[in-house]
Specification:
By secondary structure, this protein is mostly beta strands. It has an 8-stranded antiparallel beta barrel with strand order 1-2-3-4-5-6-7-8. The protein is globular, with a radius of gyration of 15 Å.
Amino acid sequence: MTVARAVVEVRARGWAPSDAACGGEEAQEMNQSVAGRTATASTPVGTWSEELLLERGTYTSTLRFTPNGRTLLLAGPRPGCVGAGTWTATGPGRFSFRLAELVFDPDGTFTGWVDIEQHVVQTGDTFTSSGVSHVYDADDRLLERAEVAARGTRSR
C-alpha cells in the first residue's frame, strides 16, 4: 500500500473531525481568532519537540502546529513515521489535537497507523498533555489502545 492510498483510506473512514465536532462554538471562535497568527506564548503555532511517556518507555517526536489549525507529525517516535491532523483551542492555555500517524517498516511498506488524540495544557513555550492512542495494522484491525502522556517544548 502506498502512502497516498493510506492517507485516502484514513480520510475515507471518516477519521478527520469537523470543526463542529471539536469543541463547540466557543472553541470555534477561539480558533478563528488564532487563525493567521504566528507563534506566540498563547498559541501552539510553531514546531515542538515532544517527549512521549508510555508504560513501556519514553519516545520523542517532532510536531508542527499551523496557524490554520493543522497538526503535522514531522518525525515520529518510529523512524520514517509521519502524520497529519488538526488542533483546536479549547480554552485559555488549552488545546486538543488529533492526528493519524502512518507507520512503515524499514523497506517502506505501510504496516499500519496510529489514531492519536491528546488534550494539552500550554504554558508559554512548554506543554503537558494526556490522551489515548489506538494502534491499527495495515488492514485497519485494532492492535492496541495506549494511554499516553507527553511533555513538549517549542523549538521554533
